[in-house]
């Protein structure tokens, strides 16, 4: 297990204080609660997921951390409250960038616009590079201007755009970043 669980809150220059930890079983409940918002889920299927989805999701992230040294970590604010997740995982779908490591984030609505996604994603880049990952991708709904802006702040470049399976009216941008050059 990484040292993230016990890390002190990080405060990047000009950014919010936060902490990342490997998701616990209890985090499934917290993610279910903080993502139970149509605005948060707009680009993730449009409606909140069932608790069982987050239970499986957090369990998978614990496995990733144990096997790979990284995962989608639970993101906590300075007060220790769960405000979402940020991290990396192997691309989990049979379409898109199969075989790549995806960096991603999802935040509770009250945490938007406060710098958490960018700051925690930068910390993620450092940690996955330390784990030996040479390249990451981010799959972002083309209409999700906030997440597109995060990829730009991270220095990621647009690789291509394709329809999202099952949502033919939505396009997905694939951004990439070579961690050997940053």
Automatic annotation (TrEMBL):
Segments forming a coiled coil: none
Under the heading InterPro entries, the entry gives:
Acyl_CoA_acyltransferase, GNAT_dom, N-acetyltransferase
Q: Name one Pfam family in it.
A: Acetyltransf_3
Molecular function terms, GO-annotated: acyltransferase activity, transferring groups other than amino-acyl groups
* Entries under Gene3D superfamilies matching the protein: 3.40.630.30
Show where the N-acetyltransferase domain sits. 18-180
What is the name of the protein in this document?
Answer: GNAT family N-acetyltransferase
